[in-house]
From TrEMBL:
One of its GO terms (cellular component) is mitochondrial inner membrane. The chain crosses the membrane at residues 20-42. This is Transmembrane protein. It comes from the Eukaryota. One of its GO terms (biological process) is mitochondrial respiratory chain complex III assembly. Residues 56-70 have a biased composition (Basic and acidic residues). Belongs to the UQCC6 family. It is a single-pass membrane protein. Keywords: Membrane, Mitochondrion, Mitochondrion inner membrane, Transmembrane, Transmembrane helix. Its main location: mitochondrion.
Length: 70
């Protein structure tokens, strides 16, 4: 087997693998850090447009169409 490993360049054998829990912590921390950086750079506009303007427009149209003969 050592001949096959030398044929393809060898390389160092793996010393150890991180646990699944530690890998999950690192992945979540990386995602949160990336999202924080992206939101600080782009600063999304989270303001909502006013809803009352649509209700007033539809209300005024209905009021003008009603006859005032009472």
């Amino acid at each position: 087997m050592s001949g096959v490993a030398r044929k393809f360049g060898g390389g160092k054998p793996a010393v150890g693998t991180p646990s699944l829990a530690w890998s999950s912590v690192v992945v979540v921390a990386s995602l949160l850090a990336g999202a924080s950086i992206a939101h600080n750079i782009y600063k999304p506009d989270l303001t909502l447009p006013p809803v009352e303007s649509e209700e007033k427009d539809s209300g005024t149209k209905q009021d003008t169409e009603k006859p005032s003969g009472s």
